[in-house]
Amino acid sequence: MSDRQRAKPAFNGNSLKRVVSMLYHFYPRLVPLAVFCMLFSAVASSIPAIFVQNVISIIEKWVDTGDWASASSEIIPKVLLLIGFYVLSIIAITVQTQLMAYMTQGFLSKMRIAMFDGMQNLPIKFFDTHKHGDIMSYYTNDIDTLRQLVSQAFPSLIQSAAIVLCVFGIMLYYSVWMTIVVVIGVIFMMFVSKKIGGGSAKYFIRQQMSMGKAEGYIQEIMNGQKVVKVFCHEQECSDAFDEINEALFEDSYRANAYANALGPIIMNIGNILYVLIAMAGGLFLLSGLGNISISGLPLSISIIIPFLNMTKQFTGNINQVSQQINAVVMGMAGATRIFALMDEKPEDDEGYVTLVNVKTDKDGNLVETSEHTKQWAWKHPHSADGSVTYIPLRGDVRMENVDFAYEEGKDVLHDVTVYAEPGQKVAFVGATGAGKTTITNLINRFYDIADGKIRYDGINVNKIRKHDLRRSLGLVLQETNLFTGTVMENIRYGRLDATDEECIAAAKLSGADDFITRLPDGYDTQLTNNGSNLSQGQRQLIAIARAAVADPPVMIMDEATSSIDTRTEAIVQRGMDKLMEGRTVFVIAHRLSTVMNSDVIMVLEHGRIIERGDHNALIAQKGTYYQLYTGAFELE
């Protein structure tokens, strides 16, 4: 089954209610004021039918009596009153448009903030299983559909509905017979709207999904453009995009074909109804049919003429409602996707042990302090007796009989046990996919284990709040991420309260200071597009400096020097050796030169630790590590 067949986006009717409730929650005073302005302008646009009927009645009397003076004395006040209504309507419309512009942009701003804040709390698994381009589509296409819904569709629907109700009431007031003819025509119009609008809704929802898929693919290819070119894969990428784009075209074409056909069809049905009302009114007059109305007025030209205008107004607003169907459907499709993102389950965190600054009092006890000290401790509250224990942060990490699977039934780690004492350097080696990076992901609690225990300074990591756990860990990855800003700001990302002097010291420690000082603006050099104006090795040096300024007791180096040439690696290695002093360090590397001086080397194969020991002990065993060491300089 294709992705297109599997992805059947359901239209969630609750999304409309949720959008309205959130809009009211954000603007509890402005929303009622805007709705009042809409209703007032709607009523004001319906009033002319009554004025027309009154004026025609006065003119009929004038024709019969020839008394223009009395007729004009009645007509002029009514005309002035109508002008007054129109002036007030203009004021109401002006206030409404300004309010809607303010509320719409404010609503979208608050929605983007809510989406982004929620996204920050999502687990890593979400980003591993969703294309980044599709996630970006939430903030662009889906948000834009909400803009059209709030700023255009909502006001149009409210005003049109109010006008329809007002005009319908005026029609009943003047003639039940004529109203029945209009209602029959409107029922037919609604039947047509439902048939055509239903098809439009289905394809507009699919269009949003297809657009997200297209943007996800484009983003993926842009990130891998060098790989595409080096393997001459341009044509295959174009063919794949053509298929995705064709699906988007098909959904967009059908959605807009339905939507564009609906307006003209409804408009022409309204024109036909206009002619039928004129004919029906003439027949009723000729036949002498008695008029049934709330007003009690007999059927006459003074009623039929404004009735024709009201019919046009009535059907015109029905048409206006039908034209907003596509905006409503697209808005609801976008809202459904946005709310699905906002409703994603955040990362679980049941931890209650926190990381705090401490100092030693005169009795040798650890005391919590708000000062920034170099001394840290785990604050462990005990619910049983209300006491609090402070456990020094030492960097003792132990994994006991750990099992883990990214997908149920497909184990990645089997019965893995790792002991890393404070200050030890532990290296993981093995083929790609053996589970090396997975172990470090579990220490960070990017994922939670299926079975076993992970203890940090004797505390089960499940009890440690994730934010505090990760604050105690330094991480340098193979893939470097630099953010838009200066070099100094990127280094300070490791610890936001670090001074310039501390950032420079960290750069010197990692070996990055030498090339940074030769940049055009030194530490104030602006980095953009993930530091594209730097070499891969230079970006990695900044990442190492960023980890150094955080000054954590535990460091995780996941292929940290893989992108650095041999000469630069020697410089970095000296800095890393200084960085590693007194810290617990986990190293993942293919280069044997990086792992040879480790206290413990663990060889993984298919998610199991098959050998462990230092370099000399493993060489003496003449097992897998010995074969890797004697067979190649790099572990493949």
In words, what does this structure look like?
This protein has 636 residues and is of the alpha/beta class. The chain has three domains: 330 residues, ABC transporter transmembrane region fold; 39 residues; 235 residues, 3-Layer(aba) Sandwich (Rossmann fold), CATH 3.40.50. Helices cover 61% and strands 14% of the residues. The chain is built from 22 helices and 16 strands. A six-stranded mixed sheet has the order 10-13-14-7-15-16, sandwiched between helices. A four-stranded antiparallel sheet has the order 2-1-3-4. A four-stranded antiparallel sheet has the order 6-5-8-9, covered by helices on one side. A hairpin with a 2-residue loop joins strand 8 and strand 9. Helix 8 crosses helix 12. The longest helix is centred in the middle third of the chain and has 54 residues. The N terminus and C terminus are likely disordered.
